[in-house]
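Re-run with default settings, no changes from the original entry. Doing this only to confirm the output is reproducible before filing.
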Amino acid sequence: MREIEALPLLTTVVGSYPTSGLPPRRAIQRAVEEQIAAGIELISDGQPRGDMVGVFAGRIPGFRHAPDGVWEVTDALDLPDAPLLGNDYTFARGLAGGRAEVKGVVTGPITLALSSRVAPGAPYTGPADPALILRLAELLGHEVAALVAAGARVVQIDEPLLSAALGGAISAELAHDALRDLAALPAFPVLHVCGDVRAIAEELLILPFAALDIENTRIANLAAFDPDQLDFATLTLSVGVVDTQDAAVESVSAIRDRIQAALERIEPERLWLSPDCGLHALPPDAARAKLAHLAEAVTKPACIPRPVRAGDASRVARRRRLSQTRSAFPPIGQNGEVWNRIASARPTSTRSSQRPHQPRRWKRPCGAVACATTWPSNSARPAGSAGTASA
């Protein structure tokens, strides 16, 4: 096994991929094949099931889709009949066939709550009610557990609204409590936050995740993180170096310049590279080309780490350990090797000491495996559910 220092700068995606109206299974197949063909090492299933809120709210008892298009909480929320995404993940993992690591992606409880409306008579005071957010966290924990049971070693929690809510409607303490158990389940938990996170950079570092994914092409988010605090946190940063708001395909040299700038802030063994956000809004040709240019930029000799700032002894020492690394970083072809790199970057201090309740065995299959989740053993999978991909 090669040491992580020998092959830094893992390439990944945030999650979504253009579907072009394809049926879900066909969209997953295209997303997996095109991500791998582009040279991406940690991929997703493309999230083909619709918007990130509706895919969960539409299956959680207690939600309803109001006539104005808003998801509305009308009653106490309850556990769905079956896992929502396990089959899609299992299908994608089988398609990857060891050529890339596949991560699971789950919408976070804070984003799900703040994207909804609480109806009169519901047992919650509003979208920011801690009782609502913590209940959603509990329900989504079962979904994360199902993905882990299906083989997901990397699970990403998507919290795009956290950048605007943290420190305002949502306290740092509530965010930590809501996300703690979700981060405790997978071997390598990742948190993705969209938008401007500069005002909450310090708070994000104390959340219990092994990696934090941020956008950085249009907003200088990375520069807001204090280098000493980054050292103390020891987590991996996944930094956006591909613009997802513009269909124009950046040149390899432009992406390489962004990588170089990131390398001046954090050492390569703790740096992942990704698009700013999901790719679903882009034309398929643009999404393919952007990912291919990202992978190509990482293989360029110009990605050798630059000298660090004078006086930063700890960084100088780390860079010295990397002085013998290769001048190019080719993609990894087997997900075993990719996983070794990911696992090596896993901080030992991020797991919470508080674990979810002991799960019972859900006897019905989640794809090709039995899911160790808290779904009751007598749950019936409804026909045509989102957990069953259609051709």
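The longest strand covers residues 236-242. Residues 1-7, 302-312, 318-334, 349-391 have pLDDT under 50 and may be disordered.
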